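Q: I have two molecules that I believe assemble together. Could you output structure tokens for the complex as a whole instead of separate predictions?
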Amino acid sequence: NAGVMQNPRHLVRRRGQEARLRCSPVKGHSHVYWYRQLPEEGLKFMVYLQKENIIDESGMPKERFSAEFPKEGPSILRIQQVVRGDSAAYFCASSLFGGYTFGSGTRLTVV
Amino acid sequence: AQSVTQPDIHITVSEGASLELRCNYSYGATPYLFWYVQSPGQGLQLLLKYFSGDTLVQGIKGFEAEFKRSQSSFNLRKPSVHWSDAAEYFCAVGSGEAAGNKLTFGGGTRVLVKP
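A: Yes, here they are, computed for all two components at once.
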């Protein structure tokens, strides 16, 4: 029973490029959450999704960031036109009725 | 708005000594409290959680935490630290265990264990 799988583990992008982060939840989990951890800080909530629906995106920056959780396939966090300040670790978590399981994260570096 | 404060950014402790990590929260309703550990380059592992009942909660790896409503605290303790406990520890508060419960994390406490 695999846990939450995130890929890639490390991603390097030049300023202005797009970053796509993937998250495959625990099998059977229908709720996905994305959190961002800036250097030397705690995790900050970004977005909560159920299959095909964004439920709460109160933590998402208004521009350049988007997330989806399609009926089939992993959840995707997409960052367009990345800037240096987007460099962070991005964690995905999933749940069914409750009780988070976190992935190991994707570490994005913008150069 | 809910918030979590971990006053100690870094703590150094000798192996075998006791450890206490502080966590203070602000929350308008009954808090659901969590402690997570993060080893370098890794994801978060749940150590323990408190929802209700006995205010002293036992977790994995020999950790325990005590909920004190009057002090809005949920401090984490371990009687005897092992070198493998060197990691970063995060306290978090949420609105419940149901799906959709988003967590608010503290800034973390980095623990260094001296031989």
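A: One point stands out. Chain B has a mean pLDDT of 91.
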